[in-house]
Design goal:
The protein is mainly alpha-helical. It is built from 23 helices and six strands. The chain is globular and about 75 Å long.
Length: 596
């Protein structure tokens, strides 16, 4: 069964978009050949395999860096994000809405037609049914994060139900979250454990971590948005945060541990994103496999050289993300220290995850079809160098880094040339630890025991000494007071989950518009005396001065021309996407999101 699944899981899926009522009338992708369709194990397996095609892939996320990251303060992309700049319009959520409900219809088609006789419902068949519950929860959560209150699709609607247009009112966001968690309870009770298929199929532990993420999202959303138009009428923040704890306590009993190696600090973390096979890494609960032998791989050659995010042009990691990482001895950095003007010094003695995430001295960097170490030295004669200089800061098109900080996460010399086979982690145990830690801190339940199981465990695995949380005067200002514990949990979340698609969601649920409005990401120091600048040839130095904008203190400020006043995010509107006008016209029971 695993081989059939792998081929379905890695296949690309291109779906047309249409209105809600239109796609509800369409035949599913896997069309029944007879009236009795899902009546046996093979038919059930094949149908569920097809549903996997909707899950994340390199074709959607590019280089293992999820496209959502460009919509945050972790990445600067040449094509800035319209939502963060307040330039969305009423149609900006149309594709997200339609994709989500198309996928839900396919899952509900399964439940509607599932007719396996009870005598044939062995553990494998029931686990497949559990996968369907997981996927229905997954897509409802995707819609909840983007639109808030939405119609819950808990049944398959046939043509007769949609002749006059489907009329389903939206549930409140906490009702939607409760429904998602109920589906994940069903999933957990039916699914095999990770060990059955080594994480290559949806499993019990993955469902538990997804449930923790859902409960954390809704619990913190309702807390931090309690006084604005995006809140539910009934604040159930503590209930959902308590659910994180309940699911986490059960997860701790599953015998999972963080992946570790006996090599250099940071190697274990890097291996999670630079390996072809994650089956032996129990921390990776759900992952996507690629195989050139099967004809399924990702072409990352161009992206390795450019550091692009999807097709958004040149990109670069922000100074803000670089400054987030602690020293390896667990102490805070002072980002105003003059030593950080030295590109090399920036990475010395820091959290090893920083050098596994950002290109630095000695890191392998793609050049044409080879990989050679990045090397910084004052330019003498380019022909004498057998290693390469830093990412271009002032090249053309996608051949440059906007900030001097090039993406390293997910890059490995095994696929610099040829076909890409690096596996893609989708759900990790570390996510559950971070959710548990945050929920406990929000509920004022923090203790040494919880710290040891979560924050301390993550830092020590990464090669960072754990110190008891203390107030950091230079920590990100969210516009409201955070305890030292919450500061460190938010820091750890950003470091551990950087470039993996979580940051935008975190900013939205934390009501972090202060980090967006009037802000634009900056990059490395590029003063004339800097080693970064001196490592370029005279011609490239001239080009940098002509093309790269610097702030008054000579730090890269690449978006100064396009975002002169910073992002213009509308805090009273842009926390949610607009419901497509066509859906409001068809379904009279829907209401538009605030200010749209």
């Amino acid at each position: 069964m695993k081989r059939i699944y792998i081929m379905a899981f890695v296949a690309a899926s291109i779906l047309p978009f249409s209105s809600c009522s239109d796609f509800l009338d369409r035949e599913p992708i896997t069309k029944p050949e007879a009236g009795n369709f899902l009546t046996g194990a093979i038919q059930v397996e094949n149908y569920i395999n097809g549903l996997y095609m909707t899950l994340p892939s390199f074709s959607k996320f590019g280089l293992g860096v999820r496209s959502e990251e460009k919509n945050s303060d972790n990445i600067i992309a040449e094509k800035y994000d319209a939502r963060l700049h307040g330039q969305n319009n009423q149609f900006s959520g149309a594709s997200d809405w339609q994709t989500g409900y198309q996928n839900l219809r396919k899952v509900n088609y399964f439940f509607h037609n599932y007719k396996v006789p009870e005598a044939q419902e062995n553990e494998d068949v029931l686990s497949l049914k559990g996968e369907a519950y997981f996927l229905r929860a997954y897509w409802h959560f995707d819609l909840l994060r983007k639109f808030g209150s939405i119609p819950v699709m808990d049944a398959f609607w046939d043509e007769n139900a949609t002749i006059a247009g489907l009329q389903i009112p939206a549930k409140t966001r906490n009702e939607v979250a409760r429904f998602i968690l109920s589906d994940l309870v069903e999933a957990k009770n039916l699914l095999h454990s990770r060990g059955k298929y080594s994480g290559i199929r949806i499993n019990k532990e993955a469902a538990m971590v997804l449930a923790m993420n859902v409960a954390l999202y809704e619990g913190t959303w309702e807390k931090y948005h309690s006084s604005d138009d995006f809140a539910s009428s009934t604040n159930e923040s503590n209930y959902f945060l308590g659910e994180v704890i309940n699911w986490g306590n059960e997860l701790f009993g599953c015998g999972i541990d963080l992946y570790k190696t006996g090599q250099n600090p940071g190697d274990a973390f890097a291996a999670l994103f630079n390996s072809k096979d994650l089956s032996g890494m129990g921390e990776v609960l759900l992952w996507r496999k690629y195989s050139s032998d099967e004809g399924v791989f990702h072409d990352v050659n161009g992206n390795l050289k450019a550091g692009v995010v999807d097709s958004e042009g040149a990109a670069g990691i922000t100074q803000s993300l670089v400054d987030n990482y602690l020293n390896a001895d667990g102490t805070f950095i002072d980002p105003t220290n003059e030593k950080f003007k030295d590109f090399k010094e920036t990475f010395e003695g820091r959290d090893p995850r920083l050098i596994q995430t950002v290109m630095n001295e000695g890191a392998k960097f793609a050049s044409a079809t080879t990989a050679t170490p990045m090397h910084l030295e004052e330019y003498t004669d380019e022909k004498k160098k057998n290693t390469i200089s830093p990412p271009k800061l002032a090249g053309d098109g996608n051949t440059r880094s906007l900030t001097g900080y090039h993406i390293r996460l997910g890059i490995d010399t095994t696929f610099v040339s040829g076909n890409g086979e690096t596996a893609l982690p989708i759900i990790r145990y570390a996510e559950g630890l971070l959710a548990y830690a945050e929920a406990a801190a929000e509920l004022e339940m923090w203790s040494d025991d919880i710290a040891n199981k979560t924050l301390k465990a993550l830092r020590e695995r990464a090669g960072v000494k754990y110190l008891a949380p203390a107030k950091d005067a230079n920590f990100t200002d969210f516009g409201y007071t955070l305890t030292p514990v919450l500061q460190e949990i938010r820091r750890e979340r950003r470091s551990e989950l950087a470039l993996q698609g979580f940051r935008l969601d975190d900013l939205m649920r934390w009501k972090a518009d202060k980090l967006i409005v009037g802000k634009r990401g900056k990059g490395a120091y590029v003063g004339d005396e800097s080693i970064l600048f001196k490592s370029y040839s005279p011609d490239n130095q001239k080009r940098i001065r002509e093309r790269l904008t610097l702030d008054d203190n000579k730090w890269a400020d690449p978006m100064a021309g396009t975002l002169p006043s910073g992002y213009q995010f509308h805090a009273d509107r842009d926390y949610l996407l607009p419901i497509p006008p066509s859906e409001l016209e068809l379904n009279k029971k829907l209401k538009q999101n605030p200010k749209w």
